[in-house]
Amino acid sequence: MITTSKQEPKEPKTKGDSFWKQLISGDFLFAPETVRWYPYITYVFLLMILIVLNEHNMDTKRQKIKQLETEYKQTISALKHNNQYILYDQNQELKQMLNNRGFEKNDKRIYKIIVQTPKEDAE
């Protein structure tokens, strides 16, 4: 038995084709299932923006810390080179030794200690 129909057979739709068509046309954005997710998607989007801004702020602070560390190291090197730098432990020992010898800190007067070495005759 031969049947004649005026309708031509249609190609079966695959899920992949409809997904890509919805994605390209943007129809999935107006689906009722998707509309319920708008507040959550907005919240996640705002969190991502905050993360990026925070990371930028952290990078700026890291660069500032590196710059300050290099300045500190250069200053300490210059002071050590000029023999003007005294370590904290040595400073505490000097204070203790001076206190034992009778020197006391007096903010009213400034004492200047000068150490002179005798000049040798080179003749």
In angstroms, what separates the terminal alpha carbons? Answer: 139 Å
Main sheet summary: none
Q: Treating each run of at least 4 consecutive H or I residues as one helix, how many helices?
A: 4
Q: Which structural class should the secondary elements be placed in?
A: mainly alpha
What is the average of the pLDDT values? 79
Helix content: 55-70%
N-to-C series of helices and strands:
HHHH
Radius of gyration (Å): 41 Å
User: Globular, elongated, flat, extended or rod-shaped: what is the shape?
Assistant: rod-shaped
| Count of beta strands | 0
Description:
The chain has helices spanning 15-25, 32-35, 38-81, 88-100. It has four helices and no strands. The longest helix has 44 residues, at 38-81. By secondary structure, it is an all-alpha fold. The protein has a domain at 18-100.
Summarize this, please?
With 123 residues, this protein is an all-alpha fold.
